[in-house]
Amino acid sequence: MVTLEGILPWIGSLAALMTSLSYVPQVRKALPRGSTEDLSLKTLIILTAGLGTWIVYGALKEDWVILAGNGVGAALSAIVLGCKVRDMRSTT
């Protein structure tokens, strides 16, 4: 018999996988030089910092779903942020 307690980690894992992988198209779009003009630097900074805070929270709670999902998201967001900073430097 499947219980709610037994299925919760699977639901969390699916949510973490989908939200983390949602950044992949943005990373692919941001990699070419000069492609991040329409992205907000402030939004990327806040998003990356927020995901980093979720990582700390997940680690303190010892919740691998929160930790892994937000770890992937933070890494991908940081890549986009790095591309944005790269593009800002090349236009000045």
In short:
Helix 1 (4-21) runs parallel beside helix 4, helix 2 (24-30) runs parallel beside helix 4 (64-90) and helix 3 runs antiparallel to helix 4. Helix content is 79%, strand content 0%.
Q: How would you describe the overall organization of this protein?
A:
There is one protein chain. The protein is mainly α and 92 residues long. The protein is 79% helix and 0% strand. It has helices spanning 4-21, 24-30, 41-61, 64-90. Helix 2 runs parallel beside helix 4 and helix 3 runs antiparallel to helix 4 (64-90). The radius of gyration is 16 Å and the shape is elongated. The mean pLDDT is 93.
Set down the secondary structure blueprint:
Layout: H1 4-21, H2 24-30, H3 41-61, H4 64-90
Helix pairs in contact: 1-4, 2-4, 3-4
Helix content: over 70%
Strand tally: 0
- Structural class of the secondary structure composition? mainly alpha
Mean pLDDT: 93
Taking the sheet with the most strands, its summary is: none
Percentage beta strand: under 5%
Q: Can you write the helix and strand succession as a string?
A: HHHH
What gyration radius follows from the Cα positions, in whole Å? 16 Å
Number of helices: 4
Overall geometric form: elongated
Give start-end ranges of low-pLDDT stretches. none
Euclidean distance between termini CA atoms: 62 Å
